[in-house]
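User: Second chain of the day. Same drill as before.
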Amino acid sequence: MPKRMTGILEERRRKKAQKSADGPLNPIAETDFVRRVELLDSFERAGLGWFWASDALGRLIYLSETAIARLGIERDKVLGKPVGDLFRTRADEGTGEPERPLRFLLGARNSISQLCVKVSSGKSEYWWEIAGKPQFDKFGVFTGYRGSAKDVTATLEDQRDAERLSQFDALTGLANRHRMARTLTKTLTHYRNSKRSCALLMLDLDRFKQVNDTLGHPAGDDLLKQVAARLQRIIGDQGEIARLGGDEFQIMLPDFDDRGVLGDLGQRMIQIVSQPYSLNGSRATIGSSLGIAIAPYDGIEAEDLVNAADLALYAAKGSGRGKYRFFSSDLKDKSRRRAQVESDLGDALANEELEMHFQPIVDAETHKVKCLEALIRWRHPEKGWIPPGEFIPIAEEVGMIKKIGAWALRKTCEDAATWPVELRVAVNVSAVQFEDDSFPNIVQQAIEYSGINPARVELEITESIFVGDYGRSKAIFARLRKLGVRLALDDFGTGYSSLSYLRDAPFDKIKIDQSFVRGCTEPGNNNKAIISSIVSLAGALQMETVAEGVETRDELALVKELGAGSLQGLIFSPAVPNDELLERLDAGKLVYDPSGPPRYRAERRKEFRRVGLIHGDHRYNVTLRNLSKTGAMIEGLLNVPVGTDVVLDLGGGQLAVAAVRRSEGASQGLRFETRLIDDGDGGLCTRHRVSPYQIEAAGRPLTALGEDAFAVLHASGGAPAKARQFIEIDMNSVQSRVA
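Assistant: Same format as last time:
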């Protein structure tokens, strides 16, 4: 079209528009159906909303063309389709929402307002918000629905994203603290009514800070995501996992109360979380500790259960890390003792309360001493001997271990320098000490100050040093090697074992942990094969081997048969003070004769505490002398026949069904019907306990278990049905008279 003609047409349109603007107002009347339809068409085409209509049978007779186009399906396949098939509410989808299904609303001729429905085209799904009103003719006959709709998919997705951010951890995708708190509270409330149990596990990563410090925070974030993935593989759909923040995780396990199952699960979690991680080309290994509490036994309310699990975790970390602990009521007392030990530890060095004792490591064939391991001891002026397993973890946690470790190293070198025989001395090195760049300097100063030959000094290092930056560890190894000291890998196979460490690290010796030696002669025990494999591995790498913790003659014979080069354990000698050692060395007594029981027995813990023994309708007070997984020895009852069935009340709702297998005077040996299990800290406990729900059923308030739950359960004002069959005596009084 010529430009002149185009210009004329444009001018005419402008004048017409101007005339309309300047002319009289022309509103759209209700009877102006043409203009009203134009208005609705423009509304639909703009995508601001759509319209729909149905007939009296609920079939769709109209849907905006733009809506049909959005769904991507043919018009003929939409029209005639029941409205309830095209539009589905959350209730129709079976989500448990309280709203009514759409078919119910339509069948009841109810008006619909702001109802969220799902619309599916077969390929995609959308969420629409619809409204509709039933229509009737002049005779009151229902003719169908007329309604509107709009797409709210994006809005709902935004809402879901916001809701997810408020409930889930952005880094790991696990539930966050707030979601877990709500879930736990809701679960425990419901479970109280249905008399069900629920376990809560608190997991904390050991030495995670070192990964952040050595490899950087991005690597730390990557590690947390990998930990979360490992936990999800272990737990699966058995429970819910949350990251509380930092390196703390919480796991809720509904309907778990068997402490045997929970202990096995806890140990598996610790082992899997402690396997090495690959972080941006670097290798890192961490540890973990775990606290376990179970509702309703350890807490009824969510806050109480969380506190119980926290206290159990605190105890696990305080007992050496890499362990799990069940909550028990005595943990509160232990927590107070721990605080006191921590307070007193600050003065122990200054007051010269710490001392070094020495345990011999002997040649497997000649039993001649080859080396002495230095072990730190603390003689508290009021509490007596405090075991290193109690105060060393505290020293590590409060930052005192470097100072104590430096003192122990210097003191060990000083003592060894005075020995009349040129024997090697081994000293334990904490992972916290080893990671300090100044550690080789501390070793050098101790050697120079004492004047000892560095070849006589052996540093025992556990696998936990291989946490974080392994390249840094290798550099420290190289510096120590230049000093001329020897290196031993302690507790091999119990922590962060990896053959790559043995390939790269310059160890002279591998120490086989006592957990493999203990019970190695029992039928069906795999420890024998493990010891044999370690000995073969060390031989191939030209390293010495030491079997730790040898206590019985059958263990001694077996580890010698398997080829261990050196032996250490109570069968030869406990750790003794330096003065006592000097007397022996001065006398030339370098050979240690073995002295111990002929064979291994299931470990019995020496006990001396009052417990209950239940027989018939009576509960007797007895003294527990020792305890193993399979039985116990008690004192305090006379006239107890062999074969008598009893129940041993270990406190805290722990009842062990047993039979008397030996009875001599006031002493009885019991064999349990069901084996006890490890409590994670070297102690023993029952798999199950008296349920607080049983106590509640007996007319008592529902509370967490007390120490004497059985007495509460069976408290009665009536007379016993039968007379007491045994005579109860107070062994403390008897011993006092004898003394």
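The chain has a mean pLDDT of 85.

User: Great, on to the next one.
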